[in-house]
Amino acid sequence: MFRSRPATSPASRENQHHTSEETFVNTSVQPTAAPATERQWMDRAIDLATTSVAGGGGPFGALVLRGGELVGTGNNQVTTLLDPTAHAEVTAMRHACRELDTFSLDGCVLVTSCEPCPMCLSSALWARMDRILFSASRDDAAYGGFDDRKFYDLFETKPRAVWPMQVEQVDVPHRTRPFEAWLAKDDRIDY
Fold first, then answer.
1. Where are the alpha helices (DSSP H) in 27-175?
2. How far is it, in rounded angstroms, from Cα 130 to Cα 53?
3. Which of 27, 92, 96, 108 could link 74 by a cystine bridge, Cβ 3.0 to 4.6 Å?
């Protein structure tokens, strides 16, 4: 099984340290200093992820922006739709494509509450996204019960510097809030 709850806290994992604000930081990724508007969009994606948990979805939220305008939103609906591809990023891209009446999201930015899994990264590449911004890291997601590291290992043969789009982390202190809500939810459906 690829997704499993880790036996240890993220503080004990390699390349991480525990901060005084009870959040976990993956020190192997260097977050960018995002402009205020990018942080505001990230806050919105994180809020969407947290709301998703309350509504029965998974702890992930995503937005698609074009020219600084919101053109698509999505939350994780894997268990609610019984669709393993209904990740927040994919649902946001589907929404944006319908809204813009196109299959190409060239010129768009994907803002997502968590580092996209390999499927979502591939979808963003196929959609021709210009840029991806994320907050919670893959290690934060693993701590929340969403461990995609085996999938990443399959795909990580080229450094991000040679990818055809920018992928950057936006570090905000509340980036793990959706995972905290998820772990506190008694009736969650782990997948």
1. 36-54, 78-81, 88-100, 118-126, 138-143, 149-155
2. 28
3. 92
- Known catalytic residues? 89
Which DSSP helix (H) or strand (E) runs through 64? strand 61-66
Q: 44-75: per-residue pLDDT in tens?
A: 999 999 999 999 999 999 999 999 999 999 99
Length of the chain: 191
Q: And the tokens for 63?
A: 């937005």
Domains and CATH numbers, the chain: 36-160 (3.40.140.10)
In angstroms, the CA 63 to CA 73 distance is 4
Distance CA 182, CA 190 (A): 10
| φ, ψ of residue 122 in degrees (nearest 5) | -65, -40
Gap between the Cα atoms of 89 and 100, Å rounded: 16
Query: pLDDT by residue (tens digit) across 128-181?
Result: 999 999 999 999 999 999 999 888 887 777 777 777 778 889 999 999 999 999
